Amino acid sequence: MAGPHKAVRAAAVALTLAGTVVTACGVGGGDAGRPKTLTWSMWASVGEERVLWRQLAERVSTDDPQLNIKLETLPWADYFTKIGARLGGHSAPCVVAVQSLRTAGFAKGMLPLDDLIAKNKFDVSDFDKSIMDGLSIGGKQYALPYDLGPTILTYNKNLFRQAGVPEPRPGWTLSEFESAARKLTADGKHGFAASPLDVWMFPMVLTKTGAQPTDGKGNLRLTTPAMTKGVQWYADLVSKQKVAPRVPATDPTFAEEAFLDGKVAMAANGPWALSALKEQAAFPVGLTTIPAGPHGSRTFSSGSGFGISKSCKQPDLAFKAITQMTSQKQLEWLAEQGRAYPARESAQHAWYENAGIADARPALEAANATASPLRTTKNWDQVDQLLFKYGVGAFNGKTSAEQYLKQVQSEAGQG
User: Fold this and answer.
1) How far apart are CA 110 and CA 141, in angstroms?
2) CATH code of 312's domain
3) pLDDT in tens, 351-369
4) Which of 24, 174, 285, 356 has the most beta carbons within 10 angstroms of its beta carbon?
């Protein structure tokens, strides 16, 4: 999301675009000789985000007048349910934004891009491999990525300095992490925020025990010994080691809020949030890799991209659109707006230049080098909701990790 300083610059555009959300689906008609309209569906939770994405559509249409892209948006909370229903019928827009964690649930309504990539001899080598893999299912590519993000740790440099704890560097270990968390837990503050949500919890479990939440083929695997051991260790950071605050039952965003409020010294996050964290935090933000376990530092990556619905009547034109939307030029622009850590390696320099965080590059490059895509199930939204719902009790010491994971596995339909 673009920061507050972008809002003034975008205000004039917002006034012009107000009320122009397109609700037509697929490819619209037009006068003879004029380009047909490609409808693009995207999530946007605030007006500033809608302005940004409309600007992207306008930039692409300006560069190539054949591409008349019209944007329709839905709030993040509703997007996946509503667009999933449309993909199941014949009313889906041509261009569809997808997130890697939800790709498995969308694949039936999406057009595999492999033939179009081959037909157009489109070079995908500049895209980060982990997010290309994350947007593929069964060896088929369903979207071209615009951003990616390995899960990393952010930390409050002031709290580290006040506690006399050396700042963590890429390659630090789990024992160093636990030692730092203990020393940073004092005076009503905690060393770390542990959260029972997918992108925050599973990378820490992965580096601890190597456990993954699925078998990579869409089957949930939450009850393996390695997963149970890893989640119990992670939950114990709250209930036994007490280096992380109790998990509130009604606020899944509590970890980031506690970090911004200066109440915890470390929290997991990703490059998609760093520009906003830097602007909102009243302290200097540092970042480092997930601490290394027995097999080194390991993490999961996730990200988003643009695909084509099966109901699109002009897939060749839609493919042209998504290649332009994910071009180096446009991804550099998105990075300059603070919106995306580019999926193209050639565009990532723009993100570093905009972020202005001194230790960002070594941390992210080290994380990217060991990141693997977080593979999910078709009903991952449900899984993640259950992880938080029952994780509250497990993290606060009322149930064991084994009971917690069995409950989630069972209610997700794979118990």
Assistant:
1) 10
2) 3.40.190.10
3) 999 888 888 999 999 999 9
4) 285
Containing structural domain, residue 223: 151-301+362-414
Gap between the Cα atoms of 285 and 131, Å rounded: 26
Tell me how far CA of residue 328 lies from CA of 32, 94, 127, in angstroms.
32, 22, 10
The 10 Å Cβ neighbour count of residue 200 is: 21
**What CA–CA distance (Å, rounded) separates 264 from 411?**
32
Tokens (6 digits) for 83 = 């667009």
* Encoded tokens for 383: 């899984």
Model pTM?
0.85
- Closest by alpha carbon to 395, among 235, 268, 267? 235
Residues 227 and 312 in one domain: no
DSSP-derived secondary structure letter, 96: E
CB neighbourhood size of 357 (10 A): 21
Q: What is the pLDDT of residues 141-197, one digit of tens each?
A: 999 999 999 999 999 999 999 999 999 999 999 999 999 999 999 999 999 999 999
Secondary structure (H, E, C), 155-205: EEHHHHHHHCCCCCCCCCEHHHHHHHHHHHCECCEECCECCCCHHHHHHHH
Placement of tokens 């180096």 in the chain: 328
Structure tokens belonging to residue 90: 């014949």
Beta-carbon count within 10 A of 31 CB: 6
The CA distance from 220 to 218, in Å, is 7
Question: Residue 7: its pLDDT value, please?
Answer: 34
Tell me, rounded to whole angstroms, the distance of Cα 332 from its chain centroid.
18
Beta bridge pairs of residue 27: 38
How far is residue 370's CA from residue 403's CA, in Å, rounded to a whole number?
31
Residues with Cβ < 8 Å from 219, sequence gap 6 or more? 377, 414
Q: Indicate the residue among 330, 355, 380 that finishes a domain.
A: 355
- The total number of residues shown for the chain amounts to 415
Q: Would you state the pLDDT for residue 169?
A: 95
What is the token pair recorded at 407?
A: 């409950």
Q: Contact, 87 vs 80, CB < 8 A?
A: no
Say if residue 145 is in the same domain as residue 155: no
Same domain, 252 and 343: no
Instruction: Count the Cβ atoms, other than its own, within 10 Å of residue 47.
Output: 14
Q: What is the pLDDT of residues 311-358, one digit of tens each?
A: 999 999 999 999 999 999 999 999 998 888 999 999 999 999 988 888
Closest by CA to 331, choosing from 79, 181, 145, is 145
Mean pLDDT over 393-412 rounds to: 97
